[in-house]
Design goal:
The protein contains six helices and five strands. It is an alpha/beta fold. Bound molecules: 5-O-phosphono-beta-D-ribofuranose.
């Protein structure tokens, strides 16, 4: 997906997951982290999924970000096949609005961890940030970018507060 080394692999169970999962990609782009995107399913293409994980490890991927909806087993399957960190994003869209995917992703048995984010776009955004935080443990320049990101968020909250006070003072 980028010219530079792909340190993160973003996997998803269906092409219908792409829009939401690209929220993770946007964060990685913002931090200058190369990533790959792959559609592969725990249920519909199990052999392909297993092969992708092996190939990604061999290419030097360091973190997997994995989104799936409904009976969302993809993150757990990836975690079963690798010792690299796996960040799971439960996706909504099913009849149970993502609660099924949340439980499927978060309720891993002891010994096979999946760091589970929130359901949907917020979770995908956080997965991108969390992947950056993992990589930043051994990358001071990336850690500095994360600090800047947090400072910019805090500034936005201050601005929103000033704006709210101004509106109230004007009688809104
Ligand atoms: C899951 O089932 C996918 O991750 C997707 O979120 C959901 C529905 O997939 P499609 O039927 O749209 O391919 O495996």
């Amino acid at each position: 997906m980028t010219d530079y080394k792909q340190l993160v692999a973003i996997l998803m169970g269906s092409g219908s997951d792409l829009e939401v999962m690209m929220e993770a990609g946007k964060m990685l782009r913002q931090f200058g982290i190369g990533f790959d995107v792959e559609v592969t399913s725990a249920h519909r293409s199990p052999d392909r999924t297993r092969q992708y994980i092996k190939d990604a490890e061999a290419r030097g991927v360091k973190v997997f970000v994995v989104g799936a909806g409904a009976a969302a087993h993809l993150a757990g399957v990836v975690a079963a096949e690798t010792t690299l960190p796996v960040i799971g994003v439960p996706l909504s869209g099913s009849a149970l609005n993502g609660l099924d995917a949340l439980y499927s992703t978060v309720m891993m048995p002891g010994g096979v961890p999946v760091a589970t984010m929130a359901i949907g776009k917020a979770g995908a955004t956080n997965a991108g940030i969390f992947a950056a935080e993992i990589l930043a443990v051994s990358d001071a320049a990336l850690a500095a970018k994360l600090k800047e990101f947090k400072a910019a968020q805090a500034k936005k909250v201050e601005e929103a507060s000033r704006e709210a006070k101004r509106k109230v003072a004007e009688g809104v």
